[in-house]
Amino acid sequence: MTQAIRTSSSFTMTTTTPRIRLLGPAWTRTFRCIWMLEELNLPYDLDERARPVSRHVTRFHKSGKVPVLLEYDHVQSEASHVDWEAFEPSFALYESVAINNYLADTYGTHLNPPLIPPPTLSRERATYDQIVSCILSELDAQGLWVYRKVTPPLCQFFDGPIPKAATLSRKQFDRINRDIFQQFLGDKGPFLLGEYFSAADILYVHCLDWAKSMQWHKPDEDAGSHFWPEPLEFYRQNCQQRPAYQRAKVLRDASTRRQAEFERKQQEKHSRKEKVSEDRRSKL
Ligand SMILES: N[C@@H](CCC(=O)N[C@@H](CS)C(=O)NCC(=O)O)C(=O)O
What we know:
5 strands, Glutaredoxin, flat, 2 domains, 8 helices, single chain
């Protein structure tokens, strides 16, 4: 796994621009921040060795969760190779939404329309906050994340499979997804805030991609609920056309392949261990 150094010719570096480093593999929620950085055309260093709960992450965020954004005011922006261990960041920030808000507020002020409504447009900003809070707490945390933790393969690291929680989380996702779509897209749109694409769309499309990767666009008999109408899929695909999404996707696809290989090897190791202890038990 390498540290990719992403630079963009369309962003003009100034001496005051800190060197930006993003911790976390692109197959994780880190994708949201990669997409934002690409929208802003900012140069950044993506550190994919920083797997969740690895020492690369816990050094800056005790819970080990990714993404984490680091800014280094005193690292030369042009240096192609940096020994990161030798520097302390000037600023560290976790939580994907906090990171994207900070990036858009700090580096996106020249954009018209902006990627998030500026705080001076207080009602628009409040609506933006409402939508992202809802997506984060209802769709992500109570829907997708609960499901991941109570179903294979991830449940082996928690309390094993919990089918009732899996059904509940799926129902939760469908209900809130329907509400969001009907209130903000439906006969409105084409984006969550109306006419213009925003960071709320980055978050929502990432959650929809994640849901689709778990086949949640198809009806589920156990949950008995389902919401994935054609216009929702059209909205998702429309956002995916953005060049910034496409660049971020290239990174995510490669990262997903590496992760699949890693999980396959972990599973093999696990099965070998199980077999050894089974053989031992049968000899007793
Ligand atoms: N609300 C956080 C969630 C971060 C999170 O849970 N990230 C996952 C990877 S996508 C992680 O690092 N999990 C490790 C763990 O929960 O121990 C965000 O949006 O940044």
